[in-house]
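Re-run with default settings, no changes from the original entry. Doing this only to confirm the output is reproducible before filing.
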Amino acid sequence: RRVEVEPFTSEDFVTIAELEAARFGVEEVDSSDTTEAADKAEAADKVEASIDFDAIDALLVDTSAALDCLPQIAISDDAATKIRLGNPVIIRGRDAPVEAEEACATARGKLVAIGAIEQGMFKPKRVFAG
């Protein structure tokens, strides 16, 4: 049974009960009381607008946290637009890596793409919406 996946440990995990509690805006849903959980789920399904998405979002980990082990390339908004269209961009700067099999491009702290750096160019493989 797997209990850790780099870079996350068991302290980072969120239980189903914690997710349900956040969804329904309650302190905690007792997972052993299936009728209570079912009643709350049914009520929430009827009134989707009442779901507290901010509470759920607070439990989520940013996508880029899973990619901290990869080289991070900070890019401009113009370069981000090119990358989102699938185009490679030249990586400039004294500390810019010349080669990397896997790297992440970020703009304004948000993940733009995962790709490779070849001969000083970032070539996107997977692109994320901005």
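Residues 23 and 49 are 11 Å apart (CA to CA). Helices lie at 16-24, 34-46, 53-57, 77-84.
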